[in-house]
Amino acid sequence: MRILALVKRIIQQMVRDKRALALMMVAPLLILTLLHYLLSAETATPRLGVNLSKNDELVDLLKENDLEVIHYDKLKQTKSFIEKHNLDGVLEVQNESITLTLLNDETSSAKALQMKVQQTIAAINAKNKLKIWRSSLKISRLSSKKNLCL
């Protein structure tokens, strides 16, 4: 009997407390709505400039990793080239050195691009065991003037 009386009293207190009822109903709906918008956002395909031929194995694997690959011959100024062609980064392969330059406007997309390039190079290492790809990947980051806060 005492347990039923206790349960009845707690239920009455909850029904009388309008703020608690509102929180129990509205808070989960708000959180679920925010999670829906957060997780259903469209992801943009990263754009990467590469100085390799179109038939190169690295280029093919980069395309398989959902990267939009743009080819170029010579690169004079990396930052202006990235901004001019609206790229997220540039991958330069010269002899045994690989340099990845990232535009650091959105750190999450820059990190995703870095991970995809590293995974691609690791896949080539595992597949072919070529010494040219065993060289360390040098990564540099650029920031545009748009995102600098004073």
Given the C-alpha coordinates, what overall shape results? elongated
Number of domains: 2
Uncertain runs with pLDDT below 50, 5 residues or more? Answer: 145-150
Number of beta strands? 5
Radius of gyration, in angstroms, nearest whole number: 26 Å
CATH class of the largest domain: Alpha Beta
Mean pLDDT: 79
CATH architecture of the largest domain: 3-Layer(aba) Sandwich
Largest sheet: 5 strands, mixed
Provide structural commentary.
By secondary structure, the chain is an alpha/beta fold. The chain folds into 2 domains: 2-39; 47-147, abc type-2 transporter like fold, CATH 3.40.1710.10. The protein is built from 5 helices and 5 strands. The protein has a 5-stranded mixed beta sheet with strand order 2-1-3-4-5, sandwiched between helices. A hairpin with a 2-residue loop joins β3 (89-94) and β4 (97-103). α3 packs across α5. The radius of gyration is 26 Å and the shape is elongated. Residues 145-150 have low confidence and may be disordered.
Summarize the structure.
The protein is an alpha/beta fold and 150 residues long. It has two domains: 2-39; 47-147, abc type-2 transporter like fold, CATH 3.40.1710.10. The protein has helices at residues 2-16, 18-39, 57-64, 78-84, 107-128, and strands at 47-50, 68-71, 89-94, 97-103, 137-142.
Jot down its keywords.
150 residues, alpha/beta, abc type-2 transporter like fold, 5 strands, disordered C terminus
